[in-house]
Amino acid sequence: MKVLLFTLFITQFAWARPTVLVSFFDPFGKAPVNNSETVAKMIVAKSATLPYDIKLCQVQTKFDISFEELRDCVAALPEKPLLVVGLGETGCDVKIETMGRNLDRTKGPDNAGVERRNTVIADGGDAAVGLTYPLPEMYCSLPEATRKTLIVSNNAGSFVCNNLAYQMAWFENEINFGFIHVPDHSCKNLPEKNQKALEILLTMIDGGVKASLERTELARLPVMKIELDVLRRKYEKDDKCLSEFYKRARPFDEKRWF
Prior knowledge:
The protein is α/β, with parallel strands linked by helices and 258 residues long. It is 40% helix and 15% strand. The longest helix is centred in the last third of the chain and has 25 residues, at 190-214. Strand 1, helix 2 and strand 2 (53-59) form a beta-alpha-beta unit. The protein contains nine helices and eight strands.
């Protein structure tokens, strides 16, 4: 089976080079840089030998505008990208997001001066929606020691990152989309942290490309506890890593946000 899948993987590339689109944000407020841009450009610098193309898309740190800009970047490509990964900065670890929440709630304004307090993003939209990238397979493409360093998150925040993630997942549900937070530009030892983030992202993107080529249709990541429990038990005997992922993935319907 592994040989067959590998052959399929190579055959796909022989006919056409898939495209992975990576988005990043502009600097927020008075910050000199947004580290999502730094890491995105590091990814492209290492992509020359990859059997797929990586394209970049800069979006503004503005409610709704970032979504429109990313959607425009997708539409401007000659063919629909195989995978779209949005990058943002927060904390000092790599934080992989499983869902977007239908709520904007900020303590300060975006780059357009807009501040929102408990504002619904999409009228009639689900309170939380799972992202569509093959995150379990991407997670399991990493060595066990590296996986332990990741934060598996059910909370992309309540600012522009989450606004973008939710709208892409809700309105562009035919796009293979996910969101990952990289370390903030103010973290100590940032070059070292960025190098580790780069290695993680290159491996995960490669795993995401392979998994996306093997998919027959997009599937949303589960957001409710009962769904996660079912999948954790399903893989408990046959695939320890996938079981581990669903165990670490936190549901929407619990009080703790990660």
